[in-house]
Amino acid sequence: MSIKGKDGKTMTDEQVLAIIEGNAAREAEWQAKLDAKELERVKAVAAAAKPQAEAENCEMELRGSILTIVIDLAHRAGLSASGKTTTVASTHGNRTFLTPDGQKVKVGVNAFAA
Fold first, then answer.
1. pLDDT digit string, tens, across residues 36-92
2. I need a labelling partner for 94 at 20 to 30 A (CA). Which of 52, 56, 70, 84 fits?
3. Separation between Cα atoms, residue 99 and residue 96, nearest integer Å
4. In this structure, is the dihedral angle defined by the CA atoms of residues 67, 71, 73 and 76, taken in order, positive or negative?
5. In the chain, where are the structural domains located?
6. Are 1 and 14 contacting, i.e. CB atoms less than 8 angstroms apart?
7. How many C-beta atoms lie closer than 10 Å to residue 16's C-beta?
């Protein structure tokens, strides 16, 4: 996917992210070139692309606007961090997904045996 700046030039998300990531001065420069919605979309793509802790016994797949979550309910991963319950599955934090219209949706999954 590519984006078009206010000046009409087209850049790919990767090109914009290379400029924005970790550089506040460059981000300010691009805030002037992109409208706010496009800049937020690029930032969301960057956040979704960052490495996250490995999910345990939890697979998630986004197709269009449908998120499918698969958990093997027979699996036991051991005691929870508190030691009070047995963990079945966990994403170990939230995952960020982008809807087809560019909205960010955060999903966190924790499953415990009763």
1. 777 777 777 666 666 567 889 999 988 888 899 999 999 998 888 888 999 999 998
2. 84
3. 10
4. negative
5. 2-49, 59-113
6. no
7. 25
